[in-house]
Amino acid sequence: MHEIKKVCVYCASSDKVDSKYFEATEIIAKTLVKNNTTVVYGGGAIGLMGKLADTVIAEKGRIIGIMPHFMKEVEYHHKDVNEFIFTADMHERKKQFMIGVDALITLPGGCGTFEELMEAITLKRLGVFTKPIVILNLDGYYDKLLDMMNHAVDCRFLSEKHLDIWKVFEDPKDVLKAINESTPWSKDAIKFAQV
What we know:
The chain is of the alpha/beta class.
C-alpha cells in the first residue's frame, strides 16, 4: 500500500468540455478529501481545475494552487484557494507540482496536461521521480496516447519495462486503488532507462 497524504492532480482549464469530465473530477476530489489527502493543482478557477478546487473546498479539504505569476489572468487563479505558490515560470511550476507528493493523477486535458504528464513519465524513467503516476482514461480519452506509448515500445524507443511507469484507470472511483496498485519504482530505474 502506498501512503497517500498528498497528491498532484494534472487537469485542464477548459470549461467547454463534456459534463462527464466535470463529474469525474468531482468524484476524484471527494475521494481524495475523504482519504484526508492534500491536493496540489494548477491553481485555476475554471474548467476541471475550478471543479477540482471548488469540490475540495466545499468538502473542507486542503488544496494548494501553483501558478506562474504571468498566468494569474490567463487561467484566472482561484480566489478561494488560500494556499498558493506563485512561480517565476512554467518550469518552476512543474517542479513544485512534484515536491513532497505521494502520487500524480492525470485527468483528461489538453497540451498543458500532456506536457506535465510526459515530463513526469520522463523523470520517472530516469529514476528522478519514483512515485505512482495514474491516468484517468475516461471513455477512452487517452487511448491514442497510450497506443503511441505502446508503439514506442514496439519500435524500441522505450523498453517494455517502461510501460510500468504509469497505471491507467477508467472509473474515477478507483483513483486510490490505481495508486495502490501501481508498480513500485526506484531510483535504480536509471539503470534501464536506455533501451
